[in-house]
Amino acid sequence: MAAKHFTGGCHCGAVRYEVHVDLDSAIACNCSRCARLGAILAFAPESAFSLISGEAGMTDYQFNKKVIHHLFCTTCGIQSFARGTMPNGTRMVAVNLRCLDGVDPGSLSPKAVDGRNF
């Protein structure tokens, strides 16, 4: 499947964005953060992501190698996306597919990724 256009955001609606992302590239990571969060993620180039609202209302959390900016809404606490850099230097956005409008997480088949031992 090719990348498609979606809108998404946090629970309270303060953070809203548009993204072109391929749902077939979904992953479920078992690192200490993702496992607790229950996120289903897909990656998109930064150029395929547009933050519509909420920039000032997010908090940045980093851990481990501190290369990913886990951004969450300061009002409702939801992390709907994160920003980082791929190993090849490409700026990317990791989108929590559970936060996309109209996407049924049960219809996704995420690939298991061993982030715990990465």
UniProtKB/TrEMBL annotation:
Keywords: Metal-binding, Zinc. GO terms for molecular function: carbon-sulfur lyase activity; metal ion binding. Residues 6-118 form the CENP-V/GFA domain. PROSITE patterns: CENP_V_GFA. Pfam families: GFA. InterPro entries: CENP-V-like, CENP-V/GFA, Mss4-like_sf. SUPFAM superfamilies: Mss4-like. The keyword Metal-binding applies. PANTHER family: CENP-V_GFA DOMAIN-CONTAINING PROTEIN, CENTROMERE PROTEIN V. Belongs to the Gfa family. This is CENP-V/GFA domain-containing protein. It comes from Rhodoplanes serenus. The lineage of its organism: Bacteria, Pseudomonadati, Pseudomonadota, Alphaproteobacteria, Hyphomicrobiales.
